[in-house]
Amino acid sequence: MENVRGILEAFRVYPVEIEKYTDRVYYVKSNNQTFALKKSILNNDTLPFWHDVYRVAQAENLQHIIPVYINHRGDLYAGNGNEVYYLTPWIESHHRSLFIDKVYQTLGYIHAKTRKIHTLTESSREQSRESFLIYQKQIYDLRKALLGHVELFESRHFMSPVELLVCTQCRDILKAFFLMDRRLEQYLEYQSDISEWQVCLCHGNLSGSHILHGERTFFINWERSKYDNPIIDLSHFLKDRTLHYDNEGESLLSKFNNYMDENKLLIHELILLCIYLMDPSQYLQAIERYVNDSSEDSTINQVIQLQRLHRQLLFGIRFSEFIEAEYEMVSLDESSEI
Description:
Blueprint: H1 2-10, E1 17-20, E2 25-29, E3 34-39, H2 47-59, E4 78-80, E5 83-89, H3 100-113, E6 116-119, H4 122-154, H5 161-191, E7 196-202, E8 211-213, E9 217-219, E10 226-228, H6 231-244, H7 249-254, H8 257-262, H9 267-277, H10 281-291, H11 299-326, H12 332-335
Antiparallel strand pairs: 1-2, 2-3, 3-5, 4-5, 6-7, 7-10, 8-9
């Protein structure tokens, strides 16, 4: 704790209580305030981006980005060798699953306030198209690999729990592949007409542990922040929620308009978000680790992981159908015939 006390002195904080809350977060209590001291993963390459978050937050009055304290030298962080620490207020958070609408509103607000529009060159559009064609071929290869694994598993007289689960889930995964292919074709059709691209301040790692609900909704830990398309944050948030919770799917869909009211996405962005959510790569990687006997997890943990990844993909399918019903003028069936 002496090292932590030394870091806190740089912020002129003299604690009466220090508690290690996680591997990287300390709860700190002084005579009249409480703080969170974070041992970050920041380095010389990422520090400028992290600094820029708080410059933008101040300029745009983004009160949902939790503030950091300045140390005695006027810096936003204190170092200890190669380690970088920063200090924020301690926020007592309520149950996160009840505030999906607030998360959507807050995220949409931050994205809208920091939005920039970039004009795409013909060269950049062509490079993007080539990347998607390569990705489309990779998806085809993954589907082929899945069918090969299922054929092998079904040929065995007795299947293991992992093999039985994969065979049981196969129909759903093939539906995700089918819809992915159609969404990719749809996006490629739109791509030639995309002349502008929206970028904004993205959190970069928007999981439930980085969302706090106090007097307002706060997003913490901006260590992986970057300027990118807003679907990066949306896909990370949605994948995180559906990976860990099986009872939020309906709320994530029904309250999505809270985001759209703040920062309306264009149709090609919604299509791309569908593609991100139905990406089966992690599911196939889990099968490959099992087949190659390279997983360090027990059988039960491998089953749990496949169930979670399956749940993610099921939500991706539902989200694609939701977008088609709520936001697209032409149905996916009709667009594939154009």
